[in-house]
Design brief:
alpha/beta; Glucose Oxidase, domain 1; TIM Barrel; eight-stranded mixed sheet; eight-stranded parallel barrel; 47% helix; globular; binds phosphoenolpyruvate; binds magnesium ion
């Protein structure tokens, strides 16, 4: 047995046999054809584009509901139907007497590098679309992809270097167990689509020479691990875990359309954290009350230049429209720290977590900030968008950032009211929460960073992960203090960090007066089910547990004890 550790980018378990889609599937034969073959080669092109378009239509009908995803595939169909491409390819066949595959290679290589060389991001993305179409055409003509796809079944785990987004729908159709990639991270397009469709994925696995076709694999997406040819004991353990997971999924589905209510009837706002419009489908399926945190770094990362206002606008509008009237809290750009962008001018900071990140970045580069704000305001016309600033450390910062919003609103003659909130994720902000609350429309506590900055422990440092302890009384006191400040100033208070989905702390957060919990899409139903087991009145009546506890161990005992008393054994939903 071999254990390969990669990057955990989704959840779930896959158990099955390896099917490797190697890069070699794109080897092109160059052949000189006779005059008599011209028509045949051109005819093969027409049949190929018809077959692929039909295939896309089928996928669109069966699997793709979200508008953004549809747009990707519609764009691919437009490329296939482009008469310019047909003319270019036909010329290469008729004049140069190239076989179709080679004519396609020449035509697409040229087009793709043309788009790649244009520094504009829009065109760089077009290059990806053309590459995807080219590969589809070649795979279709060589019958390779369909052969490999035909081989796939519900016992397959697919391994590839990189995965085009269009392939995800094919894998779902084949009900494969999982996907292992060399390239990609949490924010890769294909990974986001896969996560939304509950396909377990692990990236960062160099599988060449380590895995061969037909090997037995276990893919633990939660941990980012692939076991190759596991022993029987491990296999049995994972089979049991998977069976439990399946049962759990089926149970959770039954509460997907319900509201989020405690056992004694107190309604809690359960919101989702998202990064892309594609995630809205699952948000709506699971009846979330809105988006409590729309992280907006995605469009700024993994690229050489900044997104345009229009690009941002379309992205936000897609979320805004799909959320219908439900609130969407758009967090302004939070680059820096662990979220580095290639175009970011301060790559050389010695301590980026304490550097120019979050709202500091936006205030340092107002043009970048204003471009984003304008895009948000324009998209706000299509739904209920609200704005939130990350990493605010002082009242002055909040005021300056708000002034930019007002300036943009005036420039755009934007007349509607726009709610502007503060993310509380630095101790200094929590300590002046009472003053910030007087100027903010709402608070949302970013517990991931608040804990990091309270205990001075890098949230991504494995070596000292034990010190990143949510039971630390200082951290919990800051949350309580923030919630109290919100309450006394009559503003809404939410938690959008990971703590909001942590069953050990949900009761405590509600006891503090938190009104809204915003969790990742895959935690929505679990969180709803857990909330349904809480007796809210008992929670409110329970004595304060923060006073007089100084150590994390004792704090854990006290919270565990409270939980046993406020949680009803039988969940209501
Ligand atoms: C947080 O810090 O808790 C948070 C939600 O923001 P992010 O994880 O994006 O830094
Ligand atoms: Mg944060």
């Amino acid at each position: 047995m071999q254990t390969l550790v990669g990057i955990a980018v989704s959840s779930g378990i896959g158990i099955g046999q390896a099917i490797i889609i190697s890069d070699k599937s794109i080897e092109i034969e160059k052949r000189h054809i006779d005059q008599a073959e011209i028509e045949k080669e051109q005819g093969r092109y027409i049949s190929a584009i018809e077959a692929i378009s039909k295939n896309i239509d089928e996928h669109l009908d069966q699997f793709i509901k979200a508008k953004e995803e549809r747009e990707i595939f519609e764009a691919h169909k437009m490329i296939l139907a482009d008469p310019e491409i047909q003319k270019g390819v036909f010329d290469l066949i008729a004049r140069e007497l190239h076989n179709l595959e080679y004519a396609l290679k020449i035509y697409f290589d040229k087009t793709i590098s043309f788009f790649k060389e244009m520094k504009n991001v829009f065109y760089a993305e077009r290059a990806g679309d053309y590459q995807d179409i080219y590969e589809r055409l070649i795979n279709h003509l060589q019958n390779k992809s369909s052969l490999i796809i035909d081989e796939m079944n519900q016992d397959s785990i697919v391994l590839m270097r990189d995965c085009p987004p269009s392939m995800i729908a094919e894998l779902i159709k084949k009900k494969v167990q999982g996907l292992v990639l060399v390239k990609g991270n949490k924010t890769s397009h294909a990974v986001i689509l896969a996560r939304g469709m509950s396909l377990p994925v692990v990236t960062g696995i160099q599988f060449n020479q380590k895995i061969k076709d037909g090997d037995d694999l276990i893919l633990d997406a939660e941990q980012g691990i692939v076991f190759v040819n596991p022993d029987e004991k491990l296999l049995n353990k994972y089979h049991e875990q998977k069976a439990k997971e399946n049962e759990e999924m089926a149970n959770l589905k039954s509460i997907s359309s319900l509201p989020t209510v405690t056992a004694d009837g107190k309604v809690i706002q359960l919101m989702a954290n998202i990064e892309m419009p594609e995630e809205m489908e699952i948000v709506n399926q699971n009846n979330a009350d809105g988006i409590g945190l729309f992280r907006t770094e995605f469009l700024y990362m993994d690229r050489d230049s900044l997104p345009t206002e229009n690009e941002l606008f379309e992205f936000y509008k897609a979320v805004s429209e799909q959320a219908k009237e439900k609130p969407v809290i758009v967090r302004t750009i939070d680059v820096g720290g662990d979220k580095m962008a290639k175009w970011y001018p301060h790559l050389q900071e010695i301590n980026p977590y304490l550097g120019c990140r979050g709202i500091r970045f936006s205030l340092t580069y107002p043009e970048i900030f204003k471009t984003q704000i304008r895009a948000i305001l324009r998209a706000a016309e299509f739904g209920n968008l609200q704005i939130m600033f990350p990493l605010v450390s002082s009242v002055e910062e909040f005021r300056k950032a708000k002034d930019y919003v007002l300036e943009c609103a005036a420039e755009l003659q934007y007349k509607q009211e726009i709610r502007i909130g503060t993310m509380i994720e630095i101790p200094s902000a929590a300590l002046i929460a009472d003053q910030l609350a007087k100027e903010s429309d709402f608070f949302s506590i970013g517990t991931n960073d608040l804990l990091q900055y309270t205990v001075a422990v890098d949230r991504n440092n494995e070596t000292i992960a034990g010190l990143y302890n949510s039971y630390h009384p200082a951290f919990l006191k800051l949350i309580k203090m923030t919630a109290e400040a919100a309450k006394s100033n009559n503003i809404m208070i939410a938690v959008c960090g990971e703590l909001a989905a942590n069953e050990s702390f949900i009761g405590l957060l509600l006891k503090f007066g938190v009104q809204e919990l915003s969790v990742s899409t895959h935690s929505l139903l679990k969180t709803r089910r857990f909330i349904s087991s809480i007796n809210y009145q008992k929670l409110v009546d329970y004595p304060d547990i923060l006073t007089n506890i100084g150590d994390s161990g004792k704090m854990k005992e006290a919270i565990d004890k409270m939980n046993t008393e406020i949680i009803e054994k039988k969940e209501k939903v």
